[in-house]
User: Which sequence fits this backbone?
């Protein structure tokens, strides 16, 4: 749904993309200068108040909800993103996002090249200086300036790595394995999006999920980086992954309820005895350390 739309849809100096089921409301006397970009994604809600001004090269990326109050001005190159890519210590999801609303009050001035991130609420009558990264709420009647400085954090990675490629969200004894083998990061790739049930395993710090993982080179790279292949997914085998694991000389471990190619699998344990597989994996990892 669109209301009072006065955007330059057909002008090549602008990039305007509004999904059919997005809601966009624009107030009176909205000014947008050339080379600016506005994107409202499916089901997004974008509200721009009266007499709002965007200078050149501004960019709005609205996935969930962005509200901009009356009489607010954007300097050159201001950018708003109400979403982030999901990511782990190993990868960045290209098509899976987390979103939180952005709310900017009335009579604000956002300085040139400032970036406002998801989940931020900015009160009325706020001035934000040039080149500011806004990642927390700003109270009304404030002035924000930028101070140089970088914070660098390490992306922790485990010593050992297991890999599973799956269509199914049912991975035999996954929770038990995750808890019993904290020294192993479990890399689980799915060719499609993943269910909420599978995503919930992210509560374990050693669970890493890759969705929309269809690129053969990407899967081969995951295999190359893994110490062994864990054939524990229900449903069918994905893209001959067992043979590909064999070709890279990876050990393959499985349970009797899910094993896809028994003749190519190094160890098959009863699903009723997950601790037996845990012991086998620990012995294998100890053998790696001896080389």
Assistant:
């Amino acid at each position: 749904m669109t209301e009072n739309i006065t955007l330059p849809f057909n002008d090549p100096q602008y990039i305007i993309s509004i999904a059919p089921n997005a809601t966009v409301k624009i107030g009176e006397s909205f000014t947008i200068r050339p080379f600016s970009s506005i994107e409202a994604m499916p089901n997004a809600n974008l509200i721009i108040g009266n007499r709002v001004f965007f200078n050149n090269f501004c960019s709005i990326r609205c996935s969930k909800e962005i509200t901009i109050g009356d009489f607010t001005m954007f300097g050159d190159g201001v950018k708003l993103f109400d979403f982030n890519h999901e990511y782990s210590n190993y990868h960045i999801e290209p098509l899976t996002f987390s979103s939180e609303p952005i709310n900017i009050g009335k009579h604000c001035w956002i300085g040139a090249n400032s970036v406002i991130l998801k989940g931020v609420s900015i009160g009325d009558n706020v001035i934000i200086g040039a080149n500011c990264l806004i990642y927390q709420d700003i109270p009304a009647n404030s002035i924000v300036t930028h101070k140089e400085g970088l914070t660098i954090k390490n992306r922790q990675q485990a010593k050992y790595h297991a890999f599973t490629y799956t269509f199914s969200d049912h991975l035999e004894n996954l929770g038990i394995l995750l808890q019993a083998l904290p020294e192993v990061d479990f890399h689980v790739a799915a060719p499609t999006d993943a269910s909420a049930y599978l995503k919930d395993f992210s509560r374990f710090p050693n669970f890493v999920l890759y969705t929309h993982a269809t690129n053969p080179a990407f899967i081969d790279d995951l295999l190359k980086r893994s110490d062994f292949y864990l054939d524990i997914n229900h449903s069918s085998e994905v893209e001959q992954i067992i043979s590909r694991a064999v070709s890279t000389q990876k050990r393959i471990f499985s349970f009797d309820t899910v094993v896809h190619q028994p003749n190519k699998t190094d160890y098959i344990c009863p699903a009723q005895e997950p601790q037996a597989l845990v012991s086998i994996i620990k012995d294998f990892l100890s053998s790696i350390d001896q080389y």
